[in-house]
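Standup notes, structure subgroup. Blocker cleared on the FE2/S2 (inorganic) cluster input:
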Amino acid sequence: MQVLQTKQDLISEVDTLKIDTLIAQHQDIPGALMPLLHSIQDSIGYVPESTYAPIAKALKLSIAEVHGVVTFYHHFRTHKPGRHVLQICRAESCQSMGAAALEAHAKKCLNVDYHQTTTDEAITLEPVYCLGNCALSPAVTLDEEVFGRVSAADLDALIFEARSPRVRV
Ligand code: FES
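Run returned:
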């Protein structure tokens, strides 16, 4: 089953093959939508909108159902992320410990809003809602590694590290 591509959503041949393989692996499994979406995002970093139709066909769902699930969960991305993903917790404990100032600092430093990627494609900024690290609020993740009691200076260091090709590629 070939994944269709639009101009805005060009997917490499390698990623297309990965998606097609994952869809084939899940198509006969009852209730496979969520596991399949997770598999696709884990594999290529996001769930392209062009996958909705082949997923729907394989799982005998409507495209609207697939779209509804992808857009309901904040976890799923519909656009290719940067080389690194920086998430800032916006839940209650972190909010009470300065997360709003931290997110303003991140947006200013990176010159992006949430769900956007820096022009050098190094970092995608995302909100997240509780990382289970409330005792060490405010918390952030960089590529799924959790950091607690993060100050603006700490965030600057993480951003510098993420942009350094010697440390994280
Ligand atoms: S509220 Fe931020 S880690 Fe729980």
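Discussed briefly. The longest strand covers residues 84-89.
Next: hand off to the docking folks.
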